[in-house]
Write a structure and sequence with these properties.
The structure holds two protein chains of two kinds. By secondary structure, chain A is an alpha/beta fold. Chain A is 28% helix and 20% strand. In chain A, the strands form four sheets. In chain A, strands 1-14-13-17-15-16 form a six-stranded mixed beta sheet. A four-stranded antiparallel beta sheet of chain A has the order 2-8-7-4, with no helix packed on it. The termini of chain B are far apart. The chains are: A alpha/beta, B mainly alpha.
Chain lengths: 436, 315
């Protein structure tokens, strides 16, 4: 188990029992070409083109990049720069739905005898990226660099952010497919050891999975690990620490300690891509908080968030925050016209009582941030150095190791925007590095 | 259009003001005790001290063009703590001067809440001690307000300087029925408030326990009664309420232990060899100076540094 972290109120009962529903395809889809970490995809369609569902509309723009597919069938209305969650903009393909949902036929495959290289290329072509929020292209994770060796695969089913229940529902309703996806990943990496990490608030999943594993014939060892509810248990580095006891070195990657971690929905998407030839064009997300009916929805990529909020009867008073992702690391969006993308884990209307106040006060050095920092940094001091724009001290104190989990800001009695300061420090340090 | 706010979007309910007002609550039992033992004089000192501190803070913040933060309660905490380390019979104008020194000189001149190097109440007491040595060492006997005001010596004064007076029983010292500064006398009532602060997780055990055990151990080794040494002076008040001040103590548990060890050793040395009967005030002020240094060498070990050679901390 890792040190630090927080015990948060889960708010998961709000949507935990809601079965996954298919959200209707939108009238108009706005599909950004930059939904992933890395180089944006290059558009391969133009205004007026007819596209089918699952057709490629953007191809990978470089090595760390990912193709993008249409989530509906219809006509391309144009390519425009549109806002993404997080405030950046991306060139986006606007598609008018023709209502037919005509799809590109997928190719059925038997993965059991497939070469690892073939699996990785299918994953790449299907545009699969990390669906837990980071949106890192999955095929890159599957391509282990020379000199490194993957020893185990960890399935991340922690979903440690409060409010979110989408991964929980996916595991509950599709555990067989998820486990098949996990086995495919193990094959792609030639790994014989795997773990499923879940938090203790999802013990029912462990029961289901264990029962399923009893009758499963496989040469891969799959161990279910029930971990304490502690935020950020689902952080890649901390999940590895909790399960294997190993610490990913500062500045290193999980594979440096022989681990590769995948989110539940990512693995499900990999399974669909490899077995059925279906690219990533939809995902499950949680709509919760101040909405009339909380839901877990399967939504087409590119669906405007405003459609979903209207469907769920969201409280849209301007003083309430609309948060995309979890409440700890998610982003507050300025306009509900922003589309759902591959990394959208949830949409939350946050109740006012639990949001931080506006007034930022000076640090009183209470040290609570140090107690909770899972990276064992000194947020109190880092915050002061960042305020003073002392980037050298920020670097020396290890701001680059900050995973931006938000624990420090959460506990700070002076309501200091510590994570925000650290993001700023990191980007300034990066700029300095580039100009040198 | 909604206003963009940064993550995290949820927050713990703890605030600076709640912490400060909790400390005030924790000081109330000892305050009640001081009024019981020393009468209205004690209450007057406390009220003048709080008044002087809050007014000084407001004025300083106006002068420096800063946001007025009196409502956060930190000046009230300083006011009560200052009163607690003054003798009950001190002239009230000196108390007012002390409040000004604590807030203006020791706190706001350094940048206000969170930026002061020394404990404000203790700096004020130190200034008063050297400025008004007579008034600062005139202690009235408990309950003397009911009769004629009788000055007497504190237990440590009797022990060290052979001053006239009788050393009170352990039980009386525990309850607070002894001569001394306004808020320091009752071990029982101070501990009551301290337990509240510990349970409320506002302070941790590191500083008070290390501090008290260090003094007890050194006293025992040098042939004194450790229990007497713990209860006879300002150690309980200093260890739980002064040395634990967030801003002027180290950030990490390890740092807090080193800091408290230093406080304990210096307190013992002053009591044993120094020119004053009591050493709590100077020991804490002295150790306050070392906080940045202690912090620098007691940083937590970063996650992920166990197996790497590169990325060594260089400060």
């Amino acid at each position: 188990m890792f040190e630090g972290g927080l015990k948060l109120i889960g708010f998961k009962e709000l949507s935990k029992e809601k079965r996954i529903e298919d959200f209707p395809a939108p009238q108009q889809a706005v599909i950004p070409l930059s939904q992933h970490t890395g180089i944006p995809a290059k558009p391969v369609v133009k205004k007026g083109d007819k596209v089918l569902k699952r057709q490629v509309i953007g191809e990978a723009g470089g090595f760390i990049s990912s193709p993008v597919h249409s989530s509906i069938s219809g006509t391309v209305k144009g390519l425009e720069n549109r806002l993404l969650p997080g405030g950046k903009t991306s060139l986006s393909v606007i598609i008018e739905n023709d209502g037919n949902d005509t799809a590109v036929e997928g190719v059925q495959n038997d993965w059991k005898n497939m070469e690892p290289g073939k699996i990785i290329s299918l994953v790449q072509q299907a545009g699969i990226v990390g669906m837990g929020g980071a949106a890192f292209p999955s095929f890159v994770k599957l391509s282990i660099p020379k000199g490194k060796k993957a020893e185990c695969v960890i399935l991340n089913g922690c979903e440690c952010e409060p409010f979110l229940t989408a991964d929980y529902r996916v595991m509950k309703e599709h555990y067989a497919e998820v486990i098949e996806g996990l086995l495919i990943v193990c094959r792609a990496l030639s790994v014989k050891q795997s773990y499923i990490g879940i938090e203790s608030n999802k013990k029912d999943i462990a029961v289901l999975v264990k029962k399923f594993l009893e009758n499963l014939q496989t040469s891969v060892s799959i161990e279910v690990r029930i971990l304490p509810e502690k935020y950020p248990q689902g952080s890649e580095k901390h999940l590895i620490k909790s399960i294997t006891g190993k610490e990913v070195p500062s500045g290193g990657l999980p594979v440096d300690v022989g681990c590769v971690v995948f989110n539940v929905q990512t693995v499900l998407a990999i399974r669909d891509a490899v077995c059925r030839g279906i690219p990533l064009t939809e995902r499950v997300l949680t709509v919760t908080g101040l909405v009339k009916t909380t839901k877990n929805l399967r939504v087409r990529i590119g669906t405007p968030i405003s459609d979903i909020l209207a469907y769920c009867g969201a409280d849209l008073r301007p003083e309430l925050k609309i948060v995309i992702g979890g409440p700890m690391m998610g982003v507050n969006i300025a306009s509900p016209e922003i589309p759902v993308i591959k990394s959208t884990t949830g949409i939350i209307i946050i109740p006012e009582e639990i949001t931080p106040g506006d007034e930022i006060q000076p640090c009183i050095r209470c040290g609570k941030c140090i107690e909770v920092c899972p990276m064992k940094l000194v947020p109190a001091e880092l915050g002061r150095y960042a305020e003073a724009k002392n980037w050298d001290m920020c670097r020396n104190l290890g701001v680059a190791d900050c995973i931006e989990c938000g624990c420090c800001s959460y506990v700070c009695p002076a309501k200091r925007p510590l994570v925000e300061l650290f993001k700023w420090a990191k980007s300034e340090i990066n700029k300095e590095g580039k100009s040198k | 259009m909604n206003e963009i706010k940064w993550a995290p979007h949820i927050h713990s309910s703890e605030t600076t003001a709640k912490i400060m007002w909790s400390v005030v609550v924790a000081l109330l039992p000892a305050l009640a005790g001081s009024i019981y033992f020393f009468g209205a004089a004690a209450l007057k000192v406390v009220l003048v001290s709080i008044g002087s501190c809050t007014i000084s803070e407001t004025i300083s913040q106006i002068i420096f063009g800063k946001k007025i933060r009196v409502k956060d309660g930190s000046a009230v905490v300083t006011g009560i703590l200052l009163a607690f380390v003054l003798p009950p019979g001190i002239p009230l104008w000196m108390v007012a001067v002390g409040g000004f020194i604590a807030i203006f000189l020791a706190k706001e001149l350094f940048g206000g809440i969170g930026f002061n190097i020394f404990n404000p109440a203790l700096i004020a007491r130190a200034v008063l001690t050297v400025s008004f040595p007579l008034e600062m060492t005139q202690f009235t006997a408990p309950f003397s307000y009911r009769f004629d005001a009788v000055t007497t010596a504190t237990p440590l004064g009797i022990l060290k300087e052979g001053l006239n007076g009788q050393i009170p029983s352990m039980m009386n010292m525990f309850l607070g029925n002894r001569a001394g500064c306004i808020g320091e006398t009752s071990t029982l009532l101070l501990l009551t408030g301290s337990i509240f602060l510990l349970l409320r997780r506002i302070i941790t055990w590191h500083i008070p326990i290390t501090y008290i055990l260090t003094v007890a151990f050194l006293s025992f080794v040098s042939g004194h009664n450790p229990l007497f040494q713990i209860m006879a002076g300002g150690l309980i008040l200093g260890a739980f309420f002064m040395a634990t001040d967030y801003t002027t103590s180290p950030l990490t548990g390890k740092g807090k232990i080193i800091f408290a060890l230093g406080c304990g050793i210096i307190t013992f040395l002053i009591r044993e060899k120094g020119g004053y009967p009591e050493g709590v005030m100077f020991s804490i002020i002295f150790m306050n100076m070392f906080v940045p240094l202690i912090d620098k060498y007691t940083l937590p070990k970063k996650f992920g540094l166990l197996r790497t050679r590169h990325n060594k901390l260089s400060l």
